[in-house]
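Lab manual, section 2.4: Encoding a predicted structure.

Procedure: take the sequence of the chain (318 residues), apply the prediction step described in section 2.3, and record the output as C-alpha cells. A sample record is shown.
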Amino acid sequence: MESSTEVEVMTMARCWLCGGQEHDLVKAGSVPNALDGAAFRITDSSYGISAPVYRCRSCGFRQCHDLRSVLPYYAAMEDPAYETSRAPRALQARKLVEQLRPFHASGRLLDIGAGSGILVEEAARLGYAAEGIDPSVWLAARAAERGLKVYCGVLPGEVAGPFDLVTLVDVIEHVSDPVELLRQARAMLAPGGIGLVITPDVASLAARMMGARWWHYRIAHICYFDRRTLCDALKRADLAPVRIFRPSWFFSLDYLLDRLAVYAPPARMAKGAWATLDHGAAQSLRFSGRDLQEGLIGPTPLLPPRREPDRTAALPPR
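Recorded output:
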C-alpha cells in the first residue's frame, strides 16, 4: 500500500540493480534543503522522511537516485545516542554471531558498516578474530577507544582478507551501488566463507500497512529491497543464498517508547526494562560466494541447484 498515486516515468537515471531506465515514482520526497551528517545518524527517528523513491519498471527495485552521493555525510556523522544504546545492540549483535557459529565456530570475521564496533566486540568475545570498517570518523574513534579494530573508510580500504565470515547488518540500503558492495564482500570471503546481509523488507506487512510513514523510509536509506530483488542482487554479485530468515531486534524500553512517540505519545513507563521487537520489516540472507570446488555451501547462482547429502551448511527453518 502506497500513500501516493502519483506516477512519473524517469528515463535519465539507471536502475542500480538491473540497469533499466524507466522508473515510476512510488513515494514523494521530503528532503530538507540543507543536509548534514545529523540526517544520517543510525538513531535518526524522522520516520517517513526520505528522498523520492522510484521503482524500476524492469526489476521492481526501489531507489532514491536523486540522492546518491551520500558518503561525505556518513564520514561527518556523529551519533552519541547510538553509544548510549550500546547494551541492547550488543545483545542483538551477539545473537547474530551465534547464528553464524554452525558455519564457522572460529576464524576471521569482518563487519562492513561496523559503526563503533558493537558486533566486532561481541564476535571477539565469542572467540573470533574480528575487525570492521565504517566511514564515520566519529564512530571509528569510539571503536578505537574500546581497543577494537575498526578501520575508518570504505572497502577495500585497509582491510586485508580473506575472512571466514563477512557481515553487512543494515548497510546495503545505504549505498547507490549495492551489487558492487556485495562483490566487494564476496572478494573478502575465504573458500567456504559465509556472509550475512540484513536489510529492511519493503514488501513486509509493516511496510504495506504504514505506507509512506513506514519507519524505514529515512533519508539515510537510498535503496529498498524485497526478497526477490535482494536475491537478484546476490545473483548479480555471483553469490548464492543459503538461508533466509527474519532477525529480532533488542531495545531498551525507553528507547522503544521514544521511537513509538513518532506515531503516538507513549505512556510513562518504568525505565531500564528490556523489550524485544520482532523485526518483521527486515530480511536476512546468509550467502556463499565460492564455487563447488572451493566451498561447502553449494553452487553459485550461475549453476543449477544440486542436492548433495551433507553438502550444505544451511540451518533448518525455525
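Check your result against the sample. The chain has one domain: 9-288.
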